Amino acid sequence: MIVKKSTMDLIGRIIVYALLIVVSVLFLLPFLWMVSTALKPIDKIFTIPPQFIPQTFMWQNFTDAINAIPFWTYLSNTLIYAVFSMLGTVLSSTVIAYGFSRLRWKGRDTVFFIVLMTMMLPYQVTMIPLFIIFKNLGFINTLLPLIVPSFFGVPFYIFLIRQFMMSIPKEMSEAARIDGASEWGILWRIIVPITKPALWTVAIFQMIAAWQDFLGPLIYLSDESKYTMSLGLQQFQTAHGAIWNQLMAVSLIMTIPMIVLFFITQKALLEGLTLTGSIKA
Q1: Residue 200: which H helix or E strand, with range?
Q2: Between helices 108-117 and 155-165, what is the axis angle to 10°?
Q3: Are 147 and 85 in contact (CB under 8 A)?
Q4: Nearest 5 degrees, angle CA 238-CA 242-CA 245?
Q5: Pick the CATH number of 66-277 from 1.10.3720.10, 3.30.870.10, 2.60.40.10, 3.40.605.10
Q6: DSSP string across 87-100
Q7: Is the dihedral of CA 23, 24, 29, 31 positive or negative?
Q8: What is the rounded CA–CA span in Å between residue 76 and residue 230?
Q9: Domain parsing of the chain, residue ranges
Q10: Which of 145, 240, 243, 255 is deepest in the core (most CB within 10 A)?
């Protein structure tokens, strides 16, 4: 009986691992095809049957792609957008989440519910009003419309950090107040160090979102010197079609930093998601 049960467990694990491998390969195929296309000559991309492994590796595609566009300008704009929006999101969402989780004030839960309701509004609904506001402020054709909103908090991240903060014993805050600590001191010296896994999660999510954002730069930026990398990729789309090998080469360059970021921070990211997901509101 024990042997039969162990055999069934082994078969079950084999089936699970086989399914995971199949799904992983399906998810990896687009990335591998991007790598393959980036290393092919332009006339070998759409051959029948398709060549998954190039006969000749065209490393020149990368240098040609970088030289074909203001690559370093686009990259610096993207870094400015990603870093400052990440900092603004983490700072503002942390402060707001602290107010919703650790402070008691009349109407707190009602206001928090309203904040959560805004998550149901699609970006297309607020796109035109925001454009008009930023136009009146003179922010159009700058990176400010992309960065400034992050300093007012993001509802999903506020919810994520709030849930994590609610798991921290309130006795810690009360003891700090007895010792004379201010709310700011409690937040930055006690709550923030404990909340680091959730903050890392928010930082990584926002960094990735800003790094790959296309719609925002498309709406607010018209000067090519202000383009981000995602918007600059459209330069490889010509009237005669896309220059696919160079387009995939720059796309691969854009993808690698986010892959490296994930592997460096995956422990903190998974810890933040796991701990936050296990907390009850």
Answers
A1: helix 196-211
A2: 140
A3: yes
A4: 135
A5: 1.10.3720.10
A6: HHHHHHHHHHHHHH
A7: positive
A8: 12
A9: 2-38, 66-277
A10: 145
In the chain, what are the helix, strand and coil shares in percent, each to the nearest 5?
A: 75, 0, 20
DSSP SS3 for 238 = strand
* pLDDT tens digits in sequence order for the chain, 281 residues long: 555 667 777 788 888 999 999 998 898 888 888 888 888 888 888 877 877 888 888 889 899 889 988 999 999 999 999 999 999 999 999 999 999 988 888 888 899 999 889 888 888 888 999 999 999 999 999 999 999 999 998 999 999 999 888 888 888 888 888 888 888 888 888 888 888 888 988 999 999 999 999 999 999 998 888 999 999 888 888 766 788 888 899 999 999 888 888 888 777 777 666 665 554 44
Burial 253-281 (b: 16+ CB within 10 A, else e): bbbebeeebeeebeebbeebbebbeeeee
Residue with tokens 């360059």: 253
